[in-house]
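Revision sheet: structure tokens.
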Amino acid sequence: MKSVAEQSIEELGGRLSVLSRQKSDHVELDRLLHRLGESTHEEQLPVLLDLYRLVFPHAFAEESVLWPVMRRVLPDGEELTLQVEQEHQEVNELVTRLEGLELNTPERQAAIDRLVEVLREDVRDEEDELFPRLQERVSARQLRLLGLAWEVVDRVAPTRAHPIVARRPPGNVVAALPLTVLDRTRDRLDAIRLRGAGGAEGAIRFTTDALTRAAHTIEHLPAMRRGEDVSTRVDPKPGRPWLVVAGAVAAAIALPVAFARRGRKGGDRFRR
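Predicted:
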């Protein structure tokens, strides 16, 4: 079997093919991993945030769209996809651990080194084994249809680590909407903070911390863990009160609106 990395766009079924989209994301992932390796500890955060926004929606779309098809059309699809799900689970656990580690510590660098190693292993497994096997079983037209479905899910998927959520439907599908809202709000607030939030720095940190706690609380709902294979299951800790979730969701709506209004007022003053 010929690796996806060695095939042209035409061989992969055209630009709309799910395999072409996968290959494109893998090229971008390689670029980000090189940037991460060249970054100082202080420069790592924006690179990691870009990495998360690529990796987690990508993996979510695979788990929701591609792996169910592979389990259906390949005699050993269960074994092949489970191996990759285990790699995805380790990535989720490593990133969750990174969130609690201080900069400039050996523990943090070890976690980043392992994260890079697992991501590269994941790419090799997919490009050299899984995707060529899928290519043998489905037509170019089916690859393009899968590509469209994969793209839709990728654009609306969570962008952060959620190790307790199932790596399989229906749990991961149920988790998508609430976690996507929280994650992508965190992304916007982190972007504001990295650009320089001035006096709002404290409020942004407080809100992003609340959003993180809310997401972790939602992960503990039993519905979010349905369908999980035992080898990737994480025993959840007791959830936080639902008041945390309500407060975080309210902040997720109110704070970006406040920043947008402030930005418009500033623009009006400038025009005057």
